[in-house]
Design goal:
By secondary structure, the protein is α/β, with parallel strands linked by helices. The protein folds into 2 domains: about 180 residues, FAD/NAD(P)-binding domain (3-Layer(bba) Sandwich); about 110 residues, 3-Layer(bba) Sandwich (FAD/NAD(P)-binding domain). Helices cover about 25% and strands about 25% of the residues. The strands form 4 sheets. Strands 1, 2, 3, 4, 5, 6 and 17 form a 7-stranded mixed beta sheet that branches. The chain has a 5-stranded parallel beta sheet with strand order 8-15-9-10-11, with helices on one face. The protein has a 3-stranded antiparallel beta sheet with strand order 12-13-14, with no helix packed on it. A hairpin with a 3-residue loop joins strand 12 and strand 13. Helix 1 packs parallel to helix 2 and helix 1 runs parallel beside helix 6. It is elongated.
Length: about 300
């Protein structure tokens, strides 16, 4: 067991986690970030980011996250490559266990584990990631201005991205898959009237292909559709399973429930970023990370007054 007690431990090192680490450490809170994978999270997959304030010419996801990491560690935040497998609420202290056998304790805890999307798991998806395959219409839609794209998925986010992409693309193929749309979304009937949107239903994609960039998709009914980009907007896979023992509430999809101050239902545990399923943008994640850190610091001060 670690003999040290941290003021703030942050689980996850994406935009939310690193922002929280920056805010907490800059105010002299003993701060630790635990990350089981690469520092930077899903933002590392962003080939080019044009909508993050302060970078008018854009910046790559890896470069942006490297700057965030440097800024957080500059003020004393520690970052350790450890996978958290358990969280326990001990009242005034939170205990974390890791896969390597480590134990850490903190006065406050910020969960910033993000989410992962289900993949199509078809030929070409991994090969063309960042070269025509995207997982966020709001993020990458402007790169496909006046081009032809497909949106794959039948949930609310897919419906939203069909509409978003239709504003800038020449043509949008809506491909919900054989299961169709998960609900009767009222927007769909409106979107069916848009001449730029074509619904291709009752089929699944079997292949994404091209040379240097995406050029087509193949469907299981033999069709081949020529296009420039594929937006895969399937349901999220929560990364918050470690919260069960701590009693942190989530919704049916595994999204952590938090209030406007990023507080969860457990005193001293906060959540920020994509694991809250709000916004799913780098800029919204950083805002939540800042809010979580500010309120975690306030909570730590309240503990000291007991």
């Amino acid at each position: 067991m670690s003999e040290e007690t941290y003021d703030v431990i942050i689980v996850g090192s994406g935009p939310a986690g690193l922002t929280a680490a920056l805010y907490a450490s800059r105010h002299n809170n003993k701060t630790l970030v635990l990350e089981g994978n690469k520092v930077g999270g899903k933002a590392l997959e962003a080939h080019w980011v044009e909508n993050y304030p302060g970078f008018p010419d854009g910046i790559s996801g890896p470069d942006l996250m490297k700057l965030m990491e440097e800024q957080a560690t500059k003020f004393g935040a520690e970052i350790k490559q450890e996978t958290v497998i358990g969280i326990s609420d001990l009242g005034d202290l939170k205990m974390l266990s890791t896969r390597s056998g480590g134990f850490y304790q903190a006065k406050s805890l910020i969960i910033a584990t993000g989410v992962s999307r289900k993949s199509l798991s078809v030929k070409g998806e991994g090969e063309f990631k960042g070269r025509g395959v995207s997982y966020c219409g709001v993020c990458d839609g402007p790169f496909f201005r006046d081009k032809t794209v497909a949106v794959v998925g039948g949930g609310h986010e897919a419906v939203h991205d069909i509409e978003v992409l239709s504003e800038t693309s020449n043509k949008v193929y809506a491909i919900p898959g054989k299961k169709g749309f998960s609900e009767e979304y009222p927007e769909i009937e409106y979107l069916r009237k848009d001449p730029k949107i074509e619904f291709v239903e009752g089929v699944n994609i079997t292949e994404i292909g091209g040379e240097d960039f995406v050029e087509y998709v193949k469907l299981d009914d033999g069709q081949e559709i020529k296009l420039d980009g594929v937006f895969i907007i399937l349901e999220h896979v929560s990364t918050s399973g470690i919260l069960t023992d701590a009693g942190v509430s989530t919704d049916a999809g595994g999204c952590i429930l938090s209030d406007k101050d990023q507080k969860t239902n457990v005193n001293g545990i906060f959540a920020a970023g994509d694991c809250c399923c709000k916004g799913l943008q780098i800029v919204t994640a950083t805002g939540m990370g800042a809010s979580a850190a500010l309120n975690a610091m306030k909570y730590v001060k309240q503990l000291a007054r007991k």
